[in-house]
Amino acid sequence: MNKEFNTVGFGHPCFNPDATLYHGRVHLPVAPKCNIKCKYCDRKTGCVNENRPGVTTKVMDPYEAILYAKKMLKREPRISVIGIAGPGDPLYNDETFLTFKLISLEFKDMIKCLSTNGLLLSDKLPLLINCGVSTITVTINAIDPNIGKEIYDYAIYKDNTYRGIDAAKLLIEKQLEGIEAACDNGLLVKVNTVLIPGINDKHIDDIAKKIKELGVYIMNIMPLIPQAEFSHLKAPKCNELEKVRLQNSKIISQMYHCRQCRADAAGLLGDDI
């Protein structure tokens, strides 16, 4: 398992905090469809004002995305990572794989990165490896289906729709299976976990222990952005977030500099173009 990856000098700002001043990223919004429904998710296209996951000014086709990447690299030559992070789930969109192939042709030295809910990770892993993807982020908000069913409305897998606890069981099983396979194949894996007060806030350490066991390199505990079906919930306070991060830093390395980026973000973290 890929438990001891050396990130010294590694130019991915999300995996190496020392890289944030010298290395940037560009996200290519080529993946509009999603195969699960998280109760906190509100995907938007045509959105220029909100800075959060799931939003983009527009969805691009793979060829348009390559032109966008070239434009962003011209404006910010310190970009070293090209990623696909939505606005839906990249593994549920065939455009993702064509885009990665085009990236390999046009930007040979770029780190290729992907963010996913993990439902299709084990199924699509051979394609990702063939495309040269080396870093993956998987969002896991529960490893207990009884908690997961409070977070996810449904999951679509192999043309079947699962709801409630059945959706949570399937998603968790496939997430853990995919993460283990990715780590075993030498990919660098980060897990994002949304801290949802009153729902999974007492469960974060269970997630941390499990993903550490599987070989995950770093965990990113992010505050809930109250919206969609969770618009009535309150975001965790800064001190609550820091307390949970500190507690879990004893289990697995923590990311403290996440900006909860848009699906079309470009530039340095905290200094978007």
Automatic annotation (TrEMBL):
<keyword id="KW-0949">S-adenosyl-L-methionine</keyword>
<dbReference type="Pfam" id="PF04055">
    <property type="entry name" value="Radical_SAM"/>
</dbReference>
<keyword id="KW-0411">Iron-sulfur</keyword>
<comment type="function">
    <text>Involved in the biosynthesis of the iron-molybdenum cofactor (FeMo-co or M-cluster) found in the dinitrogenase enzyme of the nitrogenase complex in nitrogen-fixing microorganisms. NifB catalyzes the crucial step of radical SAM-dependent carbide insertion that occurs concomitant with the insertion of a 9th sulfur and the rearrangement/coupling of two [4Fe-4S] clusters into a [8Fe-9S-C] cluster, the precursor to the M-cluster.</text>
</comment>
<feature type="domain" description="Radical SAM core">
    <location>
        <begin position="20"/>
        <end position="259"/>
    </location>
</feature>
<keyword id="KW-0456">Lyase</keyword>
<comment type="pathway">
    <text>Cofactor biosynthesis; Fe-Mo cofactor biosynthesis.</text>
</comment>
<keyword id="KW-0535">Nitrogen fixation</keyword>
<dbReference type="InterPro" id="IPR013785">
    <property type="entry name" value="Aldolase_TIM"/>
</dbReference>
<dbReference type="InterPro" id="IPR007197">
    <property type="entry name" value="rSAM"/>
</dbReference>
<keyword id="KW-0479">Metal-binding</keyword>
<keyword id="KW-0004">4Fe-4S</keyword>
<keyword id="KW-0408">Iron</keyword>
<dbReference type="InterPro" id="IPR058240">
    <property type="entry name" value="rSAM_sf"/>
</dbReference>
<comment type="similarity">
    <text>Belongs to the radical SAM superfamily. NifB family.</text>
</comment>
<protein>
    <recommendedName>
        <fullName>FeMo cofactor biosynthesis protein NifB</fullName>
    </recommendedName>
</protein>
<dbReference type="InterPro" id="IPR006638">
    <property type="entry name" value="Elp3/MiaA/NifB-like_rSAM"/>
</dbReference>
